[in-house]
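Hi W.,

Here's what went into the run:
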Amino acid sequence: MKPKAPGPEKRTLPSVGAVSKERLRLWLRILKVSRFVEAELRERLRVEFGSTLPRFDVLAALYRDDTGLRMSELSGVLRVSNGNVTGIVDRLVKDGLIVRVPVEGDRRAMIVRLTNRGRETFAELAAVHEAWVDELLGAIDPDEADHLISLFGTIADRFEDNKTRDVQGGKGAHDGDS
Amino acid sequence: MKPKAPGPEKRTLPSVGAVSKERLRLWLRILKVSRFVEAELRERLRVEFGSTLPRFDVLAALYRDDTGLRMSELSGVLRVSNGNVTGIVDRLVKDGLIVRVPVEGDRRAMIVRLTNRGRETFAELAAVHEAWVDELLGAIDPDEADHLISLFGTIADRFEDNKTRDVQGGKGAHDGDS
DNA sequence: CTCAAAAGCTTTAGGCTTGAAATAATATCG
DNA sequence: CGATATTATTTCAAGCCTAAAGCTTTTGAG
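Here's what came out:
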């Protein structure tokens, strides 16, 4: 609970300072909406399918790539830690929705792939999920949606450029919403 | 385990089902941005202050209310489960930033309040936090911010109306971003 | 070839999160 | 008053999440 260094952390602050409050307010609104939508999706996945958002995310990533993904690619695409993916994958394997396949020529690596059952299950889930999102964001009309998509796209891209947060040398071509 | 009803969600739309995809895309963008910002804030809180976002949220809620909040009010304001708050509060108490005070006349209830140290600590944190958010959302200019604040506000309000997710009869006047 | 560095993954410790069950105290109904 | 329902909080089991440490395998410099 102590600032490790009182160091003058002057990070080339953008402009004067009046805008500050506005962006904070905006951030709180964004947070509120995204938490509401997430909570609602999580709840519905739980009640209607006995599943979770992280599981859904993993299945979605694998659904896009029929060849499967390495553990490290998976954690790169989903932007979560390596150890985290291990646990989620363990459970999905136990449920019979995915399999771990050894990689030819590299005994360290593992490729994770959907089983047939996994593919079917996800197809079902994805359709319902899309309908849910459409319903939950129903207040946003098409014009606004378009505007927001491009606006948020620029912000997200800016992050990627600034950070290059790609830890494991992931390919990063599977983000799916680009 | 089965979608109860895929209900034909046809709202006076220009094209048949094209909007659906748009809202899904938008949702993925929102999610991406909010996860990036959250991850960055969490990381900075950890590195610079040895703290976390949930702790910050609790302190923020208490900072607004000098009289303190009951456990149930706290979980209502933060929209997290009761049991969750218990754990976070335990740790903050152990750190000496807040205290649990018995409620006069109701031996079940507890009021949680900032200590002086807690108040000072949070004041520091809040200032830095605001600067971070301003920096992270720097790509959004004031006009857009204004527009987005009101847009997201409508969506958030719609949720509150639709759900009345207020579990413990919370006062709901402390959301702070209204 | 050798062996140290790097890469891929899992394990671990600690914390966050939920829904459900358990505890304890208060309120209400007869 | 006494039994029962409700309310406030904590505890619990299970899962998610991270950073850091550990293990195995591969790579690559000398």
